[in-house]
Amino acid sequence: MSLRRTLLPLGAAATASGLLALGLAAPASAHVGITPNTTAAGAYAVLTVSVPHGCDGAATTTVTIAMPEEIPSVTPTRNGLYAVEKVVEKLDEPITDAHGTTLTERVSEVVYTAKSPLPEGYRDTFELSVKLPDTEGETLVFPTIQTCVKGETAWTEVAAEGQDAEELAHPAPTLTLTEGTGDGHGHGDAETDEHADEDAEASGSDSDGDSDGDSDGGSDGLAVAGLVAGVLGLVAGGAALARSGRKG
Predict the structure, then answer these.
(1) Mean pLDDT for all residues in the chain
(2) Model pLDDT, residue 164
(3) Cα distance between residue 30 and residue 126, in whole Å
(4) Can you tell me the distance from the alpha carbon of 163 to that of 169, in angstroms, rounded to the nearest whole number?
(5) pLDDT score recorded for residue 35
(6) Model pLDDT, residue 101
(7) Does 155 have pLDDT greater than 90?
(8) Among 121-130, 177-186, 209-218, 229-238, which range has the highest average pLDDT?
(9) From residue 212, how far is each of 199, 205, 218 by CA, in Å?
C-alpha cells in the first residue's frame, strides 16, 4: 500500500489523544522508531529503524520506510532475513547533491520484505546510511508502514503544533537536526586527531618517537662510559698485582 495514501491528517492526532485517554494506545516503547548515530546538520548518519512487535499479534512481513524529500538518496544496509528494495521517483526539477552531482530522481521509499515473517514477540532493526540536511532545528519525518500476515500498522501520525507526540497511537518516526560539526562527516575532533597522528608519523616528527630517540642516545653513552671504566679497572688491578709480585 502506498504511503501517500495512508498518511493521516493532523486531525487524527485528536482521535489518537482520545484513545490514549481511554487507555487504548500502545506504550511509547512499542512504537516503530528511528535511532540516529548522529543528528548533526550536514553530517553523514546511520539511521537504525527498529520494529518491536507485530500487528495485533500477527507476524510482520514487510516494512516500508518513506524517505523525507530533504534526503534524496539513501544506502540501505542489507539484512540476511529480508529482501531490500529502493523505490525511486522522478523529481519535478533536478537538484544537486552534496557531491555536486545533478539528480533527476530520488529514493522515495526503502522496502524490507521478510523471507520468513517476523513473529510477534521478536524485534528487528534496519540501517539506512544518509546525508542529513544542513538545516539545524529541522525535524525530519519517516512515515513507516508495517505490513503483517493479517492487517498492517501505519506509523504515519504527525503531532499537531504544541501536541505531545507521545499522545499519538501510531506516531511516525522522526529526528530533529542539531548544530552541525562543520566537517560534513559528523566525526568532529576524533577524525582531526586521527589525521594529525598520521601526518606526524609520516613526517617523522612524532613526539613519542623523538623521546625514544633521545633515550637510546643516552643509553649508548652510558654503555661506552661503563666499558671505559671497566678497562681502567683492569689496568689498575694488573698494576697492583705486578707490584705485589715484586715485593714477594
Answers:
(1) 75
(2) 87
(3) 16
(4) 13
(5) 97
(6) 87
(7) yes
(8) 121-130
(9) 18, 12, 10
Per-residue pLDDT of 90-131, as tens digits, reads 999 998 887 888 999 999 999 999 999 999 999 999 999 999
3-class secondary structure per residue, the chain:
CCHHHHCCCCCHHHHHHHHHHCCCCCCHHHCCEEEECCCECCCEEEEEEEECCCECCECEEEEEEECCCCCCCCEECCCCCEEEEEEEEEEEEEEECCCCCEEEEEEEEEEEEEEEEECCCCCEEEEEEEECCCCCCCEEECCEEEEECCCEEEECECCCCCCCHHHCCCECCEEECECCCCCCCCCCHHHHHHHHHHHHHHHCCCHHHHHHHHHHHHHHHHHHHHHHHHHHHHHHHHHHHHHHHHHC
Mean local confidence (pLDDT), 43-55: 95
What is the structure's pLDDT at 165?
A: 83
* 86: nearest Cα among 111, 61, 114, 50: 111
| Site of grid cell 527498529 | 50
Cβ distance 157 to 13 under 8 Å?
yes
Distance CA 198, CA 218 (A): 28
pLDDT at 241: 42
d(CA 119, CA 76): 23
Cα angle 191-195-196, degrees, rounded to a multiple of 5: 115
Q: What residues contact residue 17 under an 8 Å CB cut-off, 6+ apart?
A: 163, 167, 168
Q: How many Cα atoms within 13 Å fall on the side-chain side of residue 238?
A: 6
